[in-house]
Amino acid sequence: MEPSPVVVLVRPQLAENIGAVARAMGNGGLFHLRLVAPRDGWPQPRAWITGSGAHRILDAAQVFDSVGDAVADLHRVFATCPRPRHIIKPVLTARGGAAEVVAIGQRGLRCGVLFGPERTGLDNEDIACADSLIRYDLNPDFMSLNLAQAVMVFGYEWWLARAPEQPARELQVNETMPATKGELDNFMTHLIAACDERGFLRNEQKRPGMVRNLRHFFQRGEVTRQELNTLHGVVTELGRGRK
Amino acid sequence: MEPSPVVVLVRPQLAENIGAVARAMGNGGLFHLRLVAPRDGWPQPRAWITGSGAHRILDAAQVFDSVGDAVADLHRVFATCPRPRHIIKPVLTARGGAAEVVAIGQRGLRCGVLFGPERTGLDNEDIACADSLIRYDLNPDFMSLNLAQAVMVFGYEWWLARAPEQPARELQVNETMPATKGELDNFMTHLIAACDERGFLRNEQKRPGMVRNLRHFFQRGEVTRQELNTLHGVVTELGRGRK
Questions:
Q1: Percentages helix, strand, coil for chain B, rounded to the nearest 5?
Q2: B6-161 has which fold?
Q3: Residue of chain B whose alpha carbon sits nearest to that of A136
Q4: pLDDT tens figures, B195-223
């Protein structure tokens, strides 16, 4: 068994949604799907259509009669998107919940995450089978969250919690490299010479400020060698003037 | 105009997906929807069905012939989930992109986020209209991401980037309060007295360890006053023995 948590759909109504859940699970790297009393029985061919390639997850889905049976072999159970009034339980964000699931998995223990029926969500009996609640931080004025979207948000956070952190911003340079300051300086020399040749920088008073502005512009974002080569070509060609 | 970024669906194919996108936008607090050349024309009643209450967003959706027209009044444009080979551009994570969108909005500037057609994604011409790319960190072995799921992940991150940070874990206590150590101690005294009365802790050698174990257990998670009251009742009742 892979160390990914079990997604438990409690009394899901629409087979299309079960398929969409499987697809979202694939996106997030979650592979273990359990269904508690699916309304229309199981299997339902429509799920494989909306599953859009997540066949492996749907083929391996297990069906149970009750939440208790579905979580009997698990060590820790989380209930998502709860709307309970009078329950005393730890409440986690999606991010916090995903981090706990990862940490528990690293101890070799098995987790499950409960998702309720489309219309009503989990009831109080379902939630009594869980150790903690996971409550998403989303627009409180529009809480109608599609079942597959609920699984997507958890799967996304679960993937992020395990993945090595990506830089929030980086320059994709492909087959080229960012230019060095010296390479940029070569280009500036070329550009300024071409401007001088055409008389564009002839106002001696304004000249230093204009040159500085050009330097600032070309250093606003990282520039790559390939881009500098193209810019050299543009300056050379424009410098020749009209034929 | 609210300071939320514009969601631009480029050549969307299925009206059901446009509706599901609007629903996901509502969840994430995004309200401005633009459609570039929707395949089946616009409006399409099926979108209002899958929109599941996001009527306001769909009613206000604007249609454009080209990506250039759709972004003409925006200051910064992001392209999501790109699959380009030879493009030199900044690449952001969903989280990093959401943070930039928020920061740009705080300067009073307008942002747009491009989402491509279901089957093919954005093409190179579309991407040339964007300043930066947003690439989601998800399972690379299953990249088939539903259009509404793509919008959901961005909307979720956008909401989080603006919302005051939630504690990753907290105890939901409702109408009660976590117990103080003194209240817990009262209960432990009650419990141990009841155990002593029944002779449960009679082994003097094991007694200190057993009492310590009980203390540890009742401090494993936060206990509330209401729970302690119930536990006092249980101990009193069990201590009376069978009738």
A1: 45, 15, 40
A2: Alpha/beta knot (3.40.1280)
A3: B156
A4: 998 888 999 999 999 999 898 888 888 88
